[in-house]
Design a protein that fits this description.
By secondary structure, the chain is α+β, with helices and mostly antiparallel strands. It has three helices and six strands. β5, α1 and β6 form a beta-alpha-beta unit.
Length: about 160
């Protein structure tokens, strides 16, 4: 679905990569985001190794995003944002509606309303805290719902 070869060892939320002198230099890294329908998840890999995922339930043309994790050893490099962005892009490509039940996904949509809020059915938006348009903060604000690390602490936690 999405393969990007970076020129540095760090990805930034805006899609740029490390540049000489900023402390993010490193060998090229191949990042891939793909749907793994057998496990009901989108997976993000670096150089072929799984480093994170978002799990979902699919029913009737609706993609319900319920949990996100990024390996704490790979945290802080924008991988969760890339994972969610590419998942939402794929939902749009496939004509799916999205239910952002996981707080990090709600926050991502809240921070990127123009390309993604329309994926959430208008009749369901209030359920996720969007009652006055995209500028209203969904439940969880800016700190709840960080992708949970597999080891339980270093990658953030969610209730």
């Amino acid at each position: 679905m999405d393969v990007t070869t970076t020129t540095g060892g760090r990805d930034h939320d805006d899609g740029t990569h490390g540049s000489p002198g900023d402390g993010t230099d490193g060998p090229p890294v191949t990042v891939d985001v793909h749907d793994d329908p057998g496990r009901s998840r989108y997976v993000i890999t670096e150089d072929g190794g799984e480093v994170g995922f978002v799990t979902y339930r699919m029913a009737g043309g609706v993609l319900d995003l319920v949990h996100t994790e990024v390996d704490p050893d790979h945290g802080g490099r924008g991988l969760a944002a890339r994972l969610i962005g590419r998942t939402l892009d794929d939902a749009r490509r496939r004509g799916l509606a999205v239910l952002p039940h996981y707080p990090y996904v709600r926050r991502y949509i809240d921070e990127h309303p123009d390309p993604y809020l329309d994926l959430v059915p208008a009749a369901r938006r209030a359920e996720f805290g969007w009652t006055d348009g995209p500028s209203s903060r969904p439940p969880g604000g800016t700190s709840a719902g960080e992708p949970q690390g597999r080891s339980g602490g270093a990658g953030g936690s969610a209730p």
